[in-house]
Amino acid sequence: MTIQFNDESFRDDYTFHNSEWAIKRFPFPFHEDSYMYSVNMEQHRGGPEGSVYEMRFDVDEHYVSEMKDRAIVLDQDPLRCQSLPHMTLAGWDLLELIMVSKSEDYPDLFELHRNGNQWRWINKPLGIDHSFTFMDETTLPYGPMEYITRQAQGDFAVLDQRDEMLWMDAGMVTTQADWSLDFDIGMNFFEWHAPVPKAHEMGIFKRALKFLLNIQQGAPARRLNWTMTVNPLLDTSPENYHKWGIQKTTLTPENIAHKQHLRVELQTFFRLPRSNALVFPIRCYLCSFQDLMTVPKWGRRLHRVVRDLPVELATYKGFIDNRPMMLDYLSQFDDGLPTSPGV
Ligand code: HEM
Predict the structure, then answer these.
(1) Which atom of ligand 1 is nearest to the CA of 209?
(2) Is the predicted ipTM greater than 0.85, yes or no?
(3) Is 70 annotated in the active site?
(4) N or C end of the chain: which has fewer CB within 10 A?
């Protein structure tokens, strides 16, 4: 497979764009005409060829630019990457998981050569050729989690599992939908989910935790989550809310088609071997309304989902004020025809 990497930005002049290929494989998250939270978990063992589910860690045309954006965020705010001292072993587990997966799934882009603990990692898109000693931090420029997640799209929460609970004890979080690693570090599953409306009363988090505690090595799982973002911003963090929050007020009927983006997170869950930690990669995919509308069934359905979403969810997801304008735009693409179940 050959990927043509885009040269693009997720800030300032926003040159981010999706190719036709990227639009076609966009993980449109709605299986029906309405949406409510659920324990929407399934196995993550491949998917249709070319889809974002095919590989363990999807690499696409945005890879190189996303990694540049991450480096900018970390430069301005090093606390976006944190690992409590007992999580270093999980960092090595994660480094191994990503290096092995990427070199097997994309052999033309990544190579891993192992001779005992002497490893050589080649990352062609980022121009890296690095030899190091596995489990020896002094042979890497950063800690193992930071080293590898500077080379992997999406955010990563690394959860320690103890006392039948998950604890957010490490992470690399630069592309998040308005939550903060620095705030959540050390919290448990129920604590960091506290701000989410309705889901606690529905028993979703209790059931989800039970599922996660039992995830086994070699049997990863996945789910989708979604929200809305004005401008193709990766970094919509609370830390930078003063920069991006205001941009929501710049939406107009004239610019909504290219400014408003559906933001979908492909969330996966992998058990790590030595540490027994759970890693939670959160991969963000952005698609503008105008690109989404090129697929007629998505246009119809998005209109209905946005229209009927409970106020609490539209408020939590941060688009309650812009919802009427979105509906004016989206309604043009809803011809009233029935949609069939599935994406
Ligand atoms: C939201 C983390 C697993 C359901 C969130 C938030 C965080 C988070 C940080 C934002 C909360 C805020 O507003 O500050 C995690 C981590 C997980 C995990 C680290 C892995 C261990 C799950 C699972 C489910 C789930 C398995 C359900 C099956 C939700 C829902 C929201 C949420 C429904 C609200 C999202 C929205 O409306 O946009 N999660 N989560 N999470 N999480 Fe999780």
Answers:
(1) 26
(2) yes
(3) no
(4) N
